[in-house]
From TrEMBL:
Xref: Gene3D superfamilies: 3.40.50.920, 3.40.50.970
Molecular function (Gene Ontology), one example: magnesium ion binding
Protein name, UniProt field: Transketolase
Residue ranges constituting the Transketolase-like pyrimidine-binding domain according to the UniProt record: 2-167
Protein source organism: Streptomyces yokosukanensis
One Pfam family of this chain: Transket_pyr
Signal peptide: none
Annotated InterPro entries: PDH/Transketolase, THDP-binding, Transketo_C/PFOR_II, Transketolase-like_Pyr-bd, Transketolase_C
Length: 307
């Protein structure tokens, strides 16, 4: 099955051909997908080697000359290792770039903890002005890559994953999509967890919102959903649990509400295992989600009934 990352090089190569502002900066990883494009545009496809700090610094330099750099490597090497350069070279200098990651939280368990980055979105959340896209299907990844490159000189993070929902949704790069409507709570599913969330909430009287853009957070969309479904919110993210609970609380600051944040736990799982085993260990499989969402919604029903 085609992955989100399979779409990356073809989409960005077409953008390189169409837009003279677009440049690509790589650090070895992903270079094979750009061999032909590099021959066509040797001045706008740059491979810095295994130097991730230079990867981001070079992208910032290109941005300061007026180019729109697209920067790609694994999430742990794109956000965590060169975080100082992300903070200063891009943020402090107000230089825009599109950071496109691969491997996500635990997409390559055999790579070990050095190749896992469940805290990437939370880390970027300490900085100002970042747009964060989390597609859940290759079609959505293609749409969001186009949005990211076209976003003027903004700072954008596109988080690609090997995990995917079975079908893509129509998205606009800004708003949540209502997938199911209910009356006893709102469940927000981010990116590739949607299929598991839909399976876990089957038969539960809850509204399910689908989020592929989490920064800016669609506060208005969440508020609209809570008017009919109530202000108990379950947030399921494919990265560090609780990353966006503050955004939920801010959106509902003027009304009583409860928030349950589910996602990747902080405890390091030291056996390689498989993606499916990691997913289950973090409670992100349908059975694990059903148990925790059901308990949360059930508790809300008991409180409402005065039990």
């Amino acid at each position: 099955m085609e992955t989100m990352r399979d779409r990356f090089a073809p989409v960005v190569s077409r953008l390189l051909d169409e837009d003279p502002r677009v440049a690509v900066v790589l650090a070895e990883i992903g270079k094979d997908g750009f061999r032909e494009t590099m021959a066509r545009h040797p001045d706008r496809v740059v491979n810095v080697g295994i130097r991730e700090q230079l990867l981001v610094g070079a992208a910032a330099g290109l941005a300061l000359t007026g180019l729109r750099p697209v920067v790609h490597t694994f999430a742990s090497f794109l956000v965590e290792r060169p975080f100082e350069q992300v903070k200063l070279d891009l943020g402090h200098q107000n230089a825009g770039a599109v950071l496109v990651s691969a491997a996500a939280s635990f997409d390559w368990p055999a790579g070990g903890y050095t190749h896992m980055a469940p805290g990437d979105v939370a880390l970027l959340d300490t900085l100002d002005g970042w747009t964060v896209h989390v597609p859940g299907h290759p079609d959505e990844a293609e749409t969001l890559l186009h949005h990211a490159v076209a976003a003027g000189d903004d700072k954008v993070y596109v988080r690609l994953s090997a995990q995917s929902n079975r079908q893509g949704r129509v998205i606009d790069g800004r708003h949540f999509v209502t997938v199911r409507e209910g009356r006893r709570g709102v469940v927000v599913a981010v990116g590739p967890v949607l299929d598991a969330v839909l399976a876990a909430t089957q038969g539960l009287d809850v509204t399910v919102l689908y989020a592929t853009t989490v920064r800016p957070f669609d506060a208005a969309g969440l508020r609209r959903a809570t008017r009919a479904a109530g202000t108990d919110v379950v947030l399921i993210e494919p990265y560090l649990a609780g990353t966006s609970t503050a955004a939920v609380s801010e959106a509902l600051a003027d009304v009583p509400h409860r928030v349950l944040g589910l996602g990747v736990g902080r405890r390091e799982l030291r056996r390689y295992g498989t993606v499916e085993e990691h997913t289950a260990a973090h409670g992100l499989d349908p059975a694990g989600l059903r148990e925790r969402i059901g308990r949360f919604v059930g508790a809300a029903e008991q409180v409402g009934a005065g039990v």
